[in-house]
Amino acid sequence: MKKRCHWVTEDALYIQYHDHEWGVPVKDEHTFFEFLVLECFQAGLNWLTILKKREHFRQAFDAFDYEKIAHYSEEKVSELMQNKGIIRHEGKIRAAINNAQKFIEIQSEFGSFSKFIWGFTEGEVVKNHWERGDEIPANTPLSDEISKALKKRGFKFVGSTTVYAFLQATGIVNDHISSCFCYSPE
Questions:
Q1: Catalytic-labelled residue, pool 39, 130, 164, 183
Q2: I want to staple 167 with a disulfide (CB 3.0 to 4.6 A). Which of 8, 59, 86, 173 is the partner?
Q3: Which tens digit of pLDDT belongs to each residue from 38-64?
């Protein structure tokens, strides 16, 4: 049996996510935006809750098309607030719209969101070496720095803990524990 990180339950969705997505370096703009939206909605909730609603989010938010989301109307906000398949939190829905607009601004300034976000680590994956899951912090100086930079640019729901989860999810930070089969010291 494969050993996995401490947070992975027997849920097949969690196992799939851990084994094939979490900690895998992302460069794709749409994938970055998808994780940004999902991590913002996850704030205060369990990640498995979000994973189970992921397909509903994908449908509700036009496959995470930030160009479309940036232009959502009040009518669309009302529609999303009625959608039982997603987390119906008006602040987070409005944050997704706002963050789509800010995402596009970063793309205009840096050429891509990928260049912007990877610039904080000079394009290198931060590989941590944790023996146990309880050693992994909720935030770090890197997530503090990125959170401040995103907030300064007008992003919402991007506190340091949310940003750290985003960095882990997109593989900018690799926090697989050393006993996990996904762990690699290099």
A1: 39
A2: 173
A3: 999 998 899 999 999 999 999 999 999
Given pLDDT bands bounded at 50, 70 and 90, which one contains residue 80?
very high
The verdict on residue 186 lying in a domain is no
Note if 17 is an active site residue. Answer: yes
Give the C-alpha distances (Å, rounded to integers) separating 158 from 3, 13, 42, 94, 147: 31, 25, 11, 13, 6
Least confident of 21-35, 66-80, 128-142, 153-167: 128-142
Q: Which domain holds residue 137?
A: 12-174
85/71 Cα distance (integer angstroms):
22
* CATH code, 141: 1.10.340.30
Annotation says 130 is catalytic: no
Is residue 93 situated within a structural domain? yes
| Residue indicated by tokens 């119906």 | 88
**Rounded CA gap, 174 and 25, in Å?**
9
